[in-house]
Structures are given as structure tokens and as C-alpha cells.
């Protein structure tokens, strides 16, 4: 099982997704939880590493479980997802090639989508936080 912490940052009714260097698929911003770390600690560390910003107004959205995209068949993903705002303007740093904001349908129309991300997109749409 892969345990991750992820950010559900919404801007203009769209959800941010990040594309790592060398990959074609966009994922939730965030990453793996290191041994001894809480999901919240991992979230803060990963967002600083990936987008060069801090977080404010952090609130847990929920836990999402799906197949981990790109990790072989039957590898489960356990993703603790948080809503939050940025303390500054994000920039793609280090391992992140780019980030974009998507509606549900824009993300779903991509050639490849991460199942965990789709669960978050659907949940945010149910909450009327992002557009279809």
C-alpha cells in the first residue's frame, strides 16, 4: 500500500494537478508519507518541495482509496486529502514539470488520469466546489 498526503487546492472552481518531470499524467499535488511523519506533516513538506509555497487554512477533505496509478496492478493507494490555500504564488519546482487547474470534465478528458485524483474531483463536485 502506498500512503500519501494530497492537496485539494481550488482556484476559480478548478482543482490543481501537478505533472512530474518525465511523466504525461497529472496527479494530486503532494506525495508519499515518510516513516514517522503524519499525513499533515507530509503535506506541508511535499507542497513546499513541489510548489515552493506554504499552506494556510488546512482542513481534511477525507481519505480516498484507489489503485495507485503507475505502480503496477493491485497496488492500493491510501490518500489523505486536505483542502488548503497557498501562502504565496505556486511555482513548479524540482520534480514538478508543470501544474494546471482543471474542471472534472477537463481532467477526465486527458489521455491518462489517476484514479485517486478522479475520486477527489468527484467529491469536490458533489460539494459544489468545482465545475463539471
TrEMBL record:
Residues in Nudix hydrolase domain copies:
1-126
Q: Which family does it belong to?
A: Belongs to the Nudix hydrolase family.
Domain of life of the organism encoding this protein:
Bacteria
Cofactor(s) recorded in Swiss-Prot or TrEMBL: Mg(2+)
Say which species the protein is native to. Answer: Nocardia rhizosphaerae
Q: Does the keyword Cell membrane apply?
A: no
Q: Which InterPro entries match?
A: NUDIX_hydrolase-like_dom_sf, NUDIX_hydrolase_CS, NUDIX_hydrolase_dom
> Which key words are in the record?
Hydrolase, Magnesium, Metal-binding
Q: What is this protein called?
A: NUDIX domain-containing protein
